[in-house]
Amino acid sequence: MRLALSFLRLLPPEISHFIALHALKILYKANLIRFLFPHDNSSESFQFKGLTFKNRLGIAAGLDKNGDFLDSLGALGFGFIEVGTITPKPQPGNPKPRVFRFTDQEAIINRLGFNNKGVDYLVKRVKGREYNGVLGINIGANKDSIGQKRIDDYIECFRKVSTYADYITVNISSPNTPGLRSLHSKENFLPLFKAISHVREIENFLNPIFIKLSPDEHIDVISEITKAIKEFNFDGVITSNTTIDKSNLIFESKADLSGGLSGKPLLEKSNELLSLVHLREPELLKIGVGGVHNKESFDMKFEKGASLVQIYTSFIYHGPKIIKKLLN
Question: Looking at domain 2-327, what is its CATH homologous superfamily?
Answer without folding.
Answer: Aldolase class I (3.20.20.70)
